[in-house]
Structure formats: C-alpha cells, structure tokens
Amino acid sequence: MADQRQPDRRRTVSPGSGLMLTRDLYDVWLLLGQGVLLEASLVEQKLALYDLVPTAATLDQALALAETDWERDLRPLLSQYVEADTALRSVGVLRELFTA
Q1: Which of 4, 34, 77, 84 could connect to 70 by a Cys-Cys bridge, CB 3.0–4.6 Å?
Q2: How many whole angstroms separate alpha carbon 82 and alpha carbon 30?
Q3: Which uninterrupted H or E stretch holds 89?
C-alpha cells in the first residue's frame, strides 16, 4: 500500500532547494540591475513555491545557501559569469520587502 502521508512543508531554506534558489536570486539581481522594481506580492508568491514565508531570517538563510552554491550552480549556465558577492550584495535590498 502506498504511503499517503503529506510531505512535510519546509519553513527554512534547505540545501535541497539550492539550484532553483540560486537561479532565482540571480534573476532578482538581473532584474534589479535593469531597474525593475520588485513588488512584495511577487516575492511572496515566489517564496510560496518553496513553502517559505518572507522574513529577514529566510532572506539570510537564502543568501548564505546561494553564496555557498553560487559558482557550482551558475557557472555552467552563464556565458558571462557573475561572482556571488557582486550579485548577492545587490540582492540584499530585498530585506526592505521582508521587513516592511
């Protein structure tokens, strides 16, 4: 008989969410660099895909995980590689959306 339990919902950023999370943060960096203003509701919708709630702690966890996995996850995908510290420093402005 198949196990019909529901999977546990993640409330923290975990290593299993690494690649997509890293790519999402890269996308945020790219959008910010193009002058796009991010709306809190869109960030909340994206985080909901990971079962995450937007908080400063969530952002800190996401940035730490992305920094660890950045080169491994993104160098093979990008023709013009961007260093993690450059991109993630800019993405830190998301904190304003998380603490509003």
Answers
A1: 84
A2: 10
A3: helix 84-91
